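Running log. JK asked me to keep both predictions on one page so they can be read side by side. First protein, sequence followed by its tokens:
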Amino acid sequence: MEMAKIDKAVLLAAGRGTRMRELTNDLPKPMIEVRGKPVLRHIVDGLRVAGVKRFLVVVGYRADVVRQYFGDEVEYVTQAVQDGTGRVVDLAKDFAGDSPFVLGYGDILVDPRNYKAIVDLADGVEAIVSVKRDEDVSKGGAVFVNEQMELVDLREKPRPNEPTSPWYNAGLYAFRPSIFEFTAKLKPSPRGEYELTDAIREMAQSGKRVKVLELLGEWADVRDPEILAKLNA
């Protein structure tokens, strides 16, 4: 099977991260340090080793901090309105052009060997969605798969009486530019946001192949001071 090596990445770093309390008074959450360097630095370094050459960082809150740190090592685009992950992806359209790209959240740390797997996009596969087992899906997305580990459904924060899955959406993706056809059609979710996960579900249910990749090793959503303290212990 032919593999396309992805050499572009889009990293989301626009949010403040209010659960971090005073830690994000002067920093966007992806610039908080874990083991001596910002989370975003860990991500860029890991993807670079895996062969990614061009980075687009989506900035918003305290964009100046990100720009000062990375300078012209990466490209930037500003998310003016925080109206959901589906709209953020649209900001990467010009950057992506006709090429596939990795999309990652700037506050999620993964074992760097996973980046080598996410940059390999097989022919006929439109997207890769990474997952972790045994995370609390009520805090994120439950990913439903078939026997071939292809995505058949994706549900945000399922409630106790709703169908669930052992696979938690781990926040690292690969997309071909066809994702933009689906983000363009998004309607606001019950939370009033344009959700990337709705676009991925539509993509899979339209008959396009969306592969699911189980991440190996350490994974952390650096979402609150407790997790940060654990990582830095």
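And the second, directly underneath as requested:
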Amino acid sequence: MSFVRKVCCIFIFCCLNFLAFSQNVALVNGKSISSKEFLWVYKKNHRGVTNVSYADLSTYLNLYINFKLKVIDARSMGLDADTAYKTEINGYENALKAQRKTSPKDIEYAFIMNEYREGVLMFNISEKKVWSKAWDDENKLREFYNANASNYANKGFDEIRGQVIADYQQNLENDWIKLLRTKYTVKINDEELRHLAKL
């Protein structure tokens, strides 16, 4: 391959990559979050909102990226290969098809199914990584309470156990997100996000 031809190929490849990335709001561990998917999820969860600021989109995107990171973590643990998971997904898809409100050929159908698949994975891994740990490990819960006793206005553990569980879960969640953010690569397309805010 001649030098000029090689340079042309590299230039075309870079342009194609740029065009592909420009239609995405982020890349999470090499997997894109398209602008269409992100806006669909945002609008679905913010019904009635007409004016969307860049700050609002940016905040929501970071939450959505955290969600995607948990899904990636769930897949890395093989939770998507679990028989009960597959059965649940098939049951939901059959029910969705039976409603006939959207066709499997529609992009909304793909978004709905993807949201459900990933939502169940996120729920399953959160159960393992956060929720069950807070409920099942009494010793860790008491350790957390003792380390943060000043936050509970001298109230006894049994008196505010529910609040301690909630705080401990949040602490586990925060630590998990920090770990995921270092374990997997995240690249945000800030220019595309600003463009979406103007629409």
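Observation for JK regarding the second prediction: Residues 3-21 have pLDDT under 50 and may be disordered.
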